[in-house]
From TrEMBL:
Coiled coil: 37-268
Keywords: Coiled coil
Chain ranges of the VWFA domain: 280-465
InterPro entries, A to Z: VWF_A, vWFA_dom_sf
Protein name (database record): VWA domain-containing protein
Organism annotation: Thermogemmata fonticola
Keyword Oxidoreductase: no
Gene3D superfamilies in UniProt: von Willebrand factor, type A domain
Amino acid sequence: MRIRHKVPTLVSMWMLDVFCCALGCVTLLFLINSRMASDAADTNRNALTELAKLKQRYSELVTNYESEKAAWEENRRRLFQELDSLRQDKEDLSRHLALLKKEVQSLQAQRDADRLALADAEKNLRTTQQQLTILQTQSLRSEELLRKKQKETDDLQQRIQTLQTTQDDLQRLLRVKDDEMTMLSRQLANMKKQLHDLEVLQTALRQERDAARTATEQAVKKAEMELQAAQTRIRDLTQRLEAAQTTIIDLQGQKARLADRFDQLQKSMENRFAGIVTTGQRVVFIVDISGSMAKKDTNTVDPNKWPLVVETVGKVMRSIVGLKEYQVIIFSSSARWLFHDEGNWRAFRGEESVKEVIDALLKTQPYDDTNLYAAFELAFTLRSKGLDTIYLFSDGLPTSGPGLSPADISRQPPLSELERSDKLSRHLLSTLRDQWNRPDAAQSRVRIHSVGFYFESPELGAFLWTLARDNDGSFVGMSKP
């Protein structure tokens, strides 16, 4: 077969494509340069606008600077005037200090005279040591006032020195804000007030000195009379002392008998119910009446369980020493007072009250789920009325009540029974700790004991134990019969 060679051509389809692409690139570059030139022009226009604004702002700043400079000059002139006033006040204070020193010297001379008079009184009245002690106390009080006067004078001198230092620093303080100048004016006013107080104190000291001198003379006369009366009282007290020694022997015998009686009472007060220290004066009994309280397990009814629970409540009530007032709350899906009495305290009347509670509980039939939150919320309404102890009787974890978020409620698949109870339990414990039973200076913490029935679940035991431990109480579990 003969091979034919294709004649080359200068212009072909692929060459035409190359030319088109080159033309497109040139066009694109032209458009880009046009756009860049337009952006540059916009930028220049914006720059000119900003420059005009900056010029206007500069003129405003110059105007403000001139006005502020004039205000600064005015403040500087005013501060120099106040500096002159402070210098004048300093001179006045120095003159007043000299007068105070003279008065202190006069008071010291008077104090020496009082000491001589007191020494003479001590020589003449040695037999009235106790009465002279009173006079010495009065003299020491005068000396203490003199020392206080001297101390106040020293403080005044120190303040004057501080004022001198302040005067030296005023040139630097001219640049400080107006509020600092106001503070200095307040300090000066306080110093003037203190000087006035010193003058008042000086007047009071003089009056007290005169009163002390008069009281000294009267006390000397009174001491002589009281000495005679004291000798008579000493004879009477000697006779009473002899009688008291006889009484002390009798009281020691009574003390021994009372100690024996106290030991007996202390033993009787340490009554316990299955390890729980049964104490409390104002007590709330919270009794679970949910459906499980009448069942041995989920599917098995136990006719003996609820009567056993009621009997246990009665035993605990009988064992509480010192019980004065009580209330009973029953709860399932909601909580209410057992006797429908709006939560008023009921006086404890011994076996009569125990029988009343047992009869009322036996008339109640367990039903529905377990809302522990509602029960405790109702119980703690009595905290402000003196509630000190709570006894909880239950057989299950919380199954209803607050504590679930909207996400928990709408979760798919739903929360398991154990997960639901765990969240409700943790919410109840945190509410007790942070709100209902938090430490309060005006109210004591409420002690919470828990009694669990037929508890075989470790989660239930852990919850009831934690509830009691966090609230200073005890936990006991009642096993199946």
